[in-house]
Each structure stands twice: as structure tokens, then as C-alpha cells.
Write a structure and sequence with these properties.
Order of helices and strands: EEEEEHEHEHEEEEHEHEHHEHEH
Organism: Brassica cretica (Mustard)
Helix content: 10-25%
Number of domains: 2
Protein name: AB hydrolase-1 domain-containing protein
Shape: elongated
InterPro entries: AB_hydrolase_fold
Signal peptide: 1-18
Distance between the termini: 41 Å
CATH topology of the largest domain: Rossmann fold
Keywords: Signal
Largest sheet: 7 strands, mixed
Radius of gyration: 22 Å
Strand content: 15-25%
Mean pLDDT: 77
């Protein structure tokens, strides 16, 4: 499972992924062809990908998109058919290890993420030249490309915001129980959009002296807009759920995992802990190994190299470039940090964009400018 942890006024929501089946397709505007497939890597894992735009063998520009935190290959990017036709662009989106349809990598690091990209490109026969565009937290593997596979690549970096995480409403509801592997039963209540139609699935963990019948207020409009499915459940010994005499943080965590599996929630859902109900979220971080927490470990852990000491991998005979786009109203990525990196690495082309924040790549004209900058070199 994969989880995203958020803390907002006593509520903690934890975004979960499991490599079971693909997330619901998110339509991209004006795309040409698209399909979702998987390639088998040399270590036996599978990486899922999605192609978009000009046919690969006709493309003049091939761009690999690396999605951000708690996202997938289904990320929305806005482009036009005119730009695809003008520059003959082929886009390759893929699920990083443990995201979406891609198998998890228990030994995942910056280096393994980098070699996943290299092997994916080799398996799909992208040829000797392509761009790599990293979005938000997905930008860190770009540094890995510069360090570990600098030969023959155009490396290209950008930014992207995390997806918005909306909150609940009350529509249809029913209360049922599932039988766990140890024979106990967990009671639950469903709410909102039908599960098989939902784009967002949210598990609500109730607080102290409460139950699955806890009231949360939202609007039908929000449910319809975001296609949200809510799952409330009674923790062990609460409401209609059987008690667990051996109950611990670990058992509560595995109850959540098994409940999600029994109800076939699929590869992606949120966990939102309310007040005392927040503690199992920490259990998810500890006991469910394939979580978005690995993004933090790989992205912000030990890289084994100093990114400010990278050498320019490109020469007159091996042409290519690195671009860094800085949205001046970005509250997540500090301009001073990017300026410092570019001062140390003057061969990076630095772009400052005023009056735009971390959502820069989701704004059509900015994404077109970023793409055209790559395609016109």
C-alpha cells in the first residue's frame, strides 16, 4: 500500500497506494493515442506506463514525464494537438516503483529509481536522445539521471503541485461487516459515489468513544465533482466490530489493510484519522512498507552525492541541456534553494516565472512554454 500523510486541524489523512490495478483514467485534453501497458525489468518487477501524442517511431521529440508525490502516470497535463503535430512530440508517462500499476521496490533509492527510468527507456527503444521532465517531488530522479546515466540524454526538469485532497458528504449509505483472517468481524459504512465509479476513495478512522456513524458534513456537489467514495468503519471493539483482546497499534493497522483488501478498494485511497483515530495512520507508516513515505526516503534521504557538484554531461558532440523552472509564487519550493543550485551549476538554464505558484505545469500556456523550450533546442 501507498500512503500520503497530511495533518490538518486534528485530522490526518494518509494517501494509500497498492499495486493491484490501475487508478481510474483521468482524461488528458486533446491527446492523440493512449494506452497503458507494463514492461518487465531485469529484477522481475514491472513498470506501468502510458503513451501519448505522436507515434514513437515518427516522433522528433520524446519526453518522459516523472509524476510527483502521491500521483501516477494518469497525471493531467494540458497540451494541444497543434503543438504535438508541430514538434512531433511523443510523451511517456510511467508509474514510479510502488505507484499505480508498478510493482514496489523494497530496496528503493534514488539510484534504483534512476535505473528504472533507464531500463524503461531501453525496453521501449526510445533511442539515444530523449527528455526527462520531473514534476514536483518527481524532479529528484532527474538529478539521479545527471549523476548515474548522464550519457546521451537531454535532461529536463520542472515542477508540479500535489493533487488536491477534498473532503466528504453523505449520499447513499449502508452498514455491513467483513470477516477478517483471524475470524473477527469489522463493521463498515459506505457513503458517496459508487466504489467502482469513484476517482477518490477515503477511509475515515473515527476518534475516541465514537463509531462509523460519526457525522461529517460536505455537499453533493463536491462528491459529484471529485467522484468521492467514503468508507467509515468501527475500530476493533467499537460499535458493531468485534473486540480484539490482543489489540495493538500494529493490529489496528493490519485491520485497515485487510479491510481495504476485502472491499477491493484498488490501488489508491486516502486514510483520514480523526483525533485519537489518527494514531493508526502512524502505524501505516511503520508497518505497511510500500508507502508514499518511500518518496520522502528516496527524495530527501542519502543521495550518495552532492547535487551541487554534478558535472555538465553535455558537450558539443553530445548536445543537450538542463532547464529549471521557478514559479515565484511557489510556497513549497523556495526560490533561494533553486538559485543556489543554479549558481553552483551555471550550465543549468534557470527560468523565473512571476505570478504563478506550484501549479505552474498544470497551466496550459506554461506547460506549452516548458515543452517548446525543450523541443526548440
Amino acid at each position: 500500500m501507498m500512503f500520503l500523510l497530511l495533518a490538518i486541524v486534528g485530522l490526518i489523512s494518509y494517501y494509500v497506494y497498492k499495486s493491484i490495478k490501475p487508478p481510474p483514467p483521468i482524461p488528458l485534453p486533446e491527446n492523440v493515442s493512449k494506452k497503458s501497458l507494463r514492461v518487465k525489468l531485469s529484477d522481475g518487477r514491472h513498470i506501468a506506463y502510458r503513451e501519448l501524442g505522436c507515434p514513437k517511431d515518427e516522433a522528433k521529440h520524446k519526453i518522459i514525464i516523472i509524476h510527483g508525490y502521491a500521483n501516477s502516470k494518469e497525471v493531467d497535463l494540458y497540451t494541444t494537438q497543434e503543438m504535438i503535430d508541430e514538434f512531433k512530440i511523443y510523451f511517456l508517462f510511467f508509474d514510479r516503483a510502488g505507484h499505480g500499476e508498478s510493482d514496489p521496490n523494497p530496496s528503493r533509492t534514488l539510484k534504483t529509481d534512476t535505473y528504472d527510468i533507464e531500463e524503461l527507456a531501453d525496453k521501449l527503444q526510445l533511442g539515444p536522445k530523449f527528455h526527462v521532465l520531473g514534476m514536483s517531488l518527481g524532479a529528484y530522479p532527474v538529478y539521479g539521471c545527471l549523476k548515474y546515466i548522464p550519457h546521451s540524454y537531454y535532461v529536463y526538469k520542472s515542477i508540479k503541485p500535489p493533487p488536491p485532497i477534498p473532503l466528504p458528504e453523505n449520499v447513499s449509505k449502508k452498514s455491513l461487516r467483513v470477516k477478517l483472517s483471524d475470524g473477527r468481524h469489522i463493521a463498515y459504512r459506505e457513503l458517496g459515489c459508487p466504489k467502482d465509479e469513484a476517482k477518490h476513495k477515503i477511509i475515515i478512522i473515527h476518534g475516541y468513544a465514537n463509531s462509523k456513524e460519526v457525522d461529517l458534513y460536505t455537499t453533493q456537489e463536491m462528491i459529484d465533482e471529485f467522484k468521492i467514495y467514503f468508507l467509515f468503519f468501527d475500530r476493533a471493539g467499537h460499535g458493531e466490530s468485534d473486540p480484539n483482546p490482543s489489540r495493538t497499534l500494529k493490529t489496528d493497522t493490519y485491520d485497515i489493510e485487510e479491510l481495504a483488501d476485502k472491499l477491493q478498494l484498488g490501488p489508491k485511497f486516502h486514510v483520514l484519522g480523526m483525533s485519537l483515530g489518527a494514531y493508526p495512520v502512524y502505524g501505516c507508516l511503520k508497518y505497511i512498507p510500500h508507502s508514499c513515505y518511500q518518496d520522502i526516503i528516496a527524495g530527501y534521504g542519502n543521495w550518495e552525492f552532492d547535487p551541487t557538484e554534478l558535472s555538465n554531461p553535455f558537450t558539443d558532440t553530445n548536445k543537450g541541456s538542463v532547464h529549471m523552472w521557478c514559479a515565484l509564487d511557489d510556497k513549497q519550493i523556495l526560490r533561494d534553494v533553486l538559485v543556489y543550485i543554479c549558481d553552483k551549476l551555471p550550465w543549468i538554464k534557470f527560468h523565473e516565472v512571476p505570478r504563478v505558484g506550484h501549479w505552474i505545469i498544470h497551466e496550459k500556456h506554461h506547460f506549452e512554454a516548458i515543452t517548446k523550450a525543450a523541443c526548440t533546442e
